[in-house]
Write a structure and sequence with these properties.
Elements (H helix, E strand, L loop, with lengths): L1 E5 L5 H10 L6 E8 L7 E8 L1 H18 L4 E7 L1 E3 L4 E9 L2 H17 L3 E7 L2 E4 L4 H8 L2
Parallel strand pairs: 1-4
Antiparallel strand pairs: 2-6, 3-5, 3-7, 4-6, 7-8
Helix pairs in contact: 2-3, 3-4
């Protein structure tokens, strides 16, 4: 299990290749990469803040839960913090399991958790000013299915 909370950019292809290349004991590797979205066309940057020890611990705990629940052979979670430009990779989840259903479900579970419960605070900085991003009901509803 690899959990990284970092300000540095990452290359999703390189990360996935590194994660998957040593796995000969699994039948499925699933990955998802989230990018900073500019919905209205005026986003200058997304500022992600967090408490380092708390964030690392919380993500490690939920990744361990996913590993146990879906019998994962391995999982990778990368989440960035700091100022991020539109289109920049913000997070990545990869899971490896014996079968695809477990790999997909575990990745989906981790993504829902990262979106709604991981201790990150996001501020959108636009041409019109800056606003903290509020939690969305849809994200809470998605987490509720687990």
């Amino acid at each position: 299990m690899q959990i990284r909370v970092q300000s540095e950019p990452f290359d999703a292809g390189t990360e996935l290749n590194s994660f998957a290349q040593t796995r000969t004991d699994v039948g499925a590797v699933v990955s998802f990469t989230g990018v900073v979205r500019d919905t209205d066309g005026n986003l200058r940057e997304m500022l992600i803040e967090h408490y380092p020890g708390m964030t690392q611990s919380a993500i490690t705990k939920i990744a361990q839960e996913a590993t146990d629940r879906w019998a994962l052979a391995d999982c990778l979670v990368i989440h960035r913090h700091g100022p991020l430009k539109p289109g920049a990779p913000i997070m990545m989840v990869a899971t490896a399991a014996a079968h695809r259903a477990a790999a997909f479900e575990a990745a989906d579970f981790l993504m829902d958790y990262l979106k709604s419960r991981a201790p990150f605070w996001k501020k959108e900085i636009t041409d019109d000013g800056a606003d903290w991003v509020a939690a969305k009901d849809a994200d809470e509803d998605a987490l509720g299915r687990w």
